[in-house]
Structures are given as structure tokens and as C-alpha cells.
Automatic annotation (TrEMBL):
It comes from Collimonas arenae. InterPro entries: Cell_wall_metabolism_enzyme, Dup_hybrid_motif, M23ase_b-sheet_dom, Peptidase_M23_N. Residues 28-96 form the Peptidase family M23 N-terminal domain. GO terms for molecular function: metalloendopeptidase activity. Keywords: Signal. Residues 170-264 form the M23ase beta-sheet core domain. PANTHER family: M23 FAMILY METALLOPEPTIDASE, PEPTIDASE-RELATED. Residues 1-19 form the signal peptide. This is Membrane protein related to metalloendopeptidase.
Length: 273
């Protein structure tokens, strides 16, 4: 019996298999648009990891390193692979069906932009995508995040959206229904890497939490930060508004990992399969 208990303890220590970590429990939601938490084991130094040739966030919990991988909405269910220090690690993506939403916009330019708008949209898209490519080696202060505002969730991530009957990109973030002027807090420490006004997103702020883990806040009525500014968890970045393509005041919050937008609900413990 003692031998058995001894073996069990050794097994637990060696493989961390007896209790999933808090991070794995909350964040491991391997569906399209979700997150895979991959145990990379022990190492003295932080291992590098990549998925689809992009660097991946790696954090330590207890004695093990965990890769926190953003899974694109376009990935089909099945086996996916990351590589780390010359080894491959598999994870399995399960199916998830996202609902549809039909939205009516009075401003038809927001559905079928004019040619001058299209030029602006193209230029802005390049800037916004470039922002998500930021990869600083800083370790995030926390990967289990605070809600940036206190309020009910309105539109969920991944919803297939039809504006005035025409299908557009699926919803890339999570919406909170809160009044104009509500202060928006950064859900973890970070550095402001982008501030601007954009056609669809309105007044926008990016906060880089480290290693490609980036928050985007959109439709703000007011921006209270400058590019380059360092923020601690809970500091204000701006105020809720309805600038850009918005049917009313709300906060739109994106989370990006390895240049991939994933469901922010996962990070605040509000994920629904
Ligand atoms: Zn939104």
C-alpha cells in the first residue's frame, strides 16, 4: 500500500496529472475561436513555442510551463500541433456551433462603404493587423482576467452577423451593454501599443499584456491613455461610447493570442460551449 501511495505521489509530481491547474481548468477550451492549454513540462528556462509559425504565449504554473494557444475560428475540428524546443505537442479541437445575429443599421455606409471609405478601411486594417503582430517577451501579470467593465454581456464572440441582410465577418470580440461614459479598466498589466479612431471600431485602444496576449477596446467615447504608457491591472484606458459601427453605447473587447482573435469570455470564466 505504501508503495502504491509513493508511486502515486511520484506520478503526480512527475506529470502534474492529478489535478489540472487553475489555468488549464479555466482556459483550456479547444474549439474554433477558443484556446488550447498545452503542458510543455518542466524546464529551467521559459521554452519557446509556436503554432502555425507564430510565437505562442508561454506561462509557468507551479513547476510546469504551459503554452496558451489561440485557435482561429476557421480551424476545423481535429488534431492540431504546436512545436516547442524541437518537440511537437498535439491537441484536439472539438466542434462548436456559433449562432447567427441579424442587425439593422440605419447608416448604410456602415454596411456597404463608399469607395473613399473602402480605401480608409483597407489602410486601417493593415495597421490593426500589424498591432496584433506585436510580440514582447514580457510575462503577463495574469492570464485569468478581470472584466473590463461591470455589466451584462450583450453580443457574444463568434456570432455570424448579417447587417441589413448581408453577411459580414463574424463577431471578433465580446460586447458589454453599459452606458456611455462607463470607465473601461485594463484586465491585466500592459503597455498601450495603439490608439486611434477607425471606421468600424471607432475610438480604439490596444493594451499589450505580453507575448502577443493583447486586449482591444472599441467604440470608446473618450481615450484616457497614450501610446507607450504602462498600465497596471485595473487602471482606466477610456470611457464607453458608440463611435464607429455601433447601434448604441457598448464596450467591444477583443482578445488576441498568436495573432488570433479568441473568445474573451474564456478569460473571465464566462465561456459557454
Ligand atoms: Zn462587438
Amino acid at each position: 500500500m505504501m508503495h502504491f501511495i509513493g508511486s502515486l505521489i511520484l506520478f503526480c509530481l512527475a506529470f502534474n496529472a492529478c489535478a489540472d491547474s487553475k489555468i488549464t481548468q479555466q482556459l483550456n477550451k479547444p474549439v474554433p475561436g477558443g484556446v488550447a492549454v498545452v503542458d510543455l513540462g518542466r524546464a529551467v528556462q521559459i521554452p519557446k513555442a509556436s503554432y502555425q509559425s507564430r510565437p505562442v504565449l508561454v506561462v509557468k504554473e507551479q513547476s510546469n510551463w504551459l503554452a496558451i494557444v489561440g485557435i482561429p475560428l476557421t480551424v476545423k475540428p481535429g488534431i492540431q500541433q504546436i512545436s516547442s524546443n524541437g518537440h511537437n505537442f498535439n491537441f484536439t479541437v472539438a466542434n462548436k456551433k456559433y449562432p447567427e445575429q441579424r442587425i439593422t443599421l440605419k447608416n448604410k455606409r456602415m454596411v456597404n462603404p463608399e469607395s473613399a471609405d473602402l480605401k480608409r478601411i483597407e489602410a486601417e486594417r493593415a495597421v490593426l493587423i500589424q498591432g496584433y503582430r506585436t510580440f514582447n517577451t514580457v510575462t503577463p501579470s495574469n492570464v485569468l482576467l478581470d472584466k473590463p467593465v461591470n455589466g451584462p454581456l450583450s453580443s457574444k464572440f463568434g456570432v455570424r452577423r448579417f447587417f441589413n441582410g448581408e453577411e459580414r465577418n463574424p463577431h471578433s470580440g465580446l460586447d458589454f451593454a453599459v452606458p456611455t461614459g462607463t470607465p473601461v479598466k485594463t484586465p491585466a498589466d500592459g503597455k498601450v501599443i495603439l490608439v486611434g479612431n477607425y471606421f468600424f471600431n471607432g475610438n480604439t485602444v490596444y493594451v499589450d499584456h505580453g507575448q502577443g496576449f493583447i486586449s482591444m477596446f472599441c467604440h470608446l467615447s473618450k481615450i484616457d491613455v497614450l501610446v507607450g504608457q504602462s498600465l497596471v491591472r485595473g487602471e482606466f484606458v477610456g470611457k464607453v461610447g458608440s463611435t464607429g459601427r455601433a447601434t448604441g453605447p457598448h464596450l467591444h473587447w477583443n482578445i488576441s493570442l498568436n495573432e488570433t482573435r479568441v473568445d474573451p469570455a474564456i478569460f473571465i470564466g464566462a465561456f459557454q460551449p
